[in-house]
Design goal:
With about 190 residues, the chain is of the alpha+beta class.
């Protein structure tokens, strides 16, 4: 993780077991989804009834992932009250991380091209080869089967390591239109046979 984990408690006493549980769950997610760059957790209780806390706590997660806005997991206390007979902090933590894991898994499958989306770019993708890569400037060019050059940006590489690309490496791509003409989008490094 590039940014230290942030855990904050508001209107809830910070307990060692809760913080330990949160850190263990973050470690589990990091092992399964290695591209997490930041993780913020806020545990809060929003209301008091006659000075006694009766509303279950809310656990809000903000997860930084490259190439998109932060994933945010948050639910209202009523959600926990409907789902559990006796909602408590442990159930709130488990539920927030269960939802986060499901969202991260969906994002990972989407990035690996294994989604159940009705439309797929497979029928539009073509095979090309790397002609030149400028890692320090975050772009490169590939040669199409017709012999023309197409620009591609580091952020267009969906699978494979941009920094490991070399001349002649085979890439699958979808041709799109950029500001200055045709470009390669949705670039995937061809797996070695």
């Amino acid at each position: 993780m590039q940014v230290p984990i942030e855990i904050a408690f508001h209107n809830v006493d910070s307990t060692e077991w809760a913080e330990t549980m949160i850190r263990e769950r973050i470690d589990e997610l990091e092992r399964r989804f290695e591209r997490i760059t930041s993780f913020r957790v806020r545990v809060e209780r929003r209301a008091k009834s006659n000075g006694v806390m009766t509303v279950p706590p809310v656990v809000r997660l903000e997860i930084g992932v490259p190439g998109r806005a932060d994933l945010v997991v948050s639910h209202e206390p009523e959600f926990l009250q409907r789902k559990f007979q006796r909602p408590d902090l442990q159930k709130a933590i488990n539920e927030a991380f269960r939802i986060a894991e499901r969202q991260l898994l969906a994002l990972k499958e989407q990035r690996e091209g294994r989604t159940n989306a009705p439309y797929s770019d497979i029928q539009n993708q073509r095979l090309g080869q790397v002609a030149e890569v400028q890692p320090e400037q975050d772009f490169g060019y590939l040669v199409t089967s017709e012999g023309s050059l197409l620009y591609f940006h580091r952020n267009s590489v969906l699978t494979g390591d941009f920094d490991a690309l070399g001349r002649g490496d085979e890439l699958y791509y979808v041709e799109g239109v950029g500001d200055t003409g045709p470009v390669a989008t949705k670039v995937r490094v061809k797996a070695a046979d």
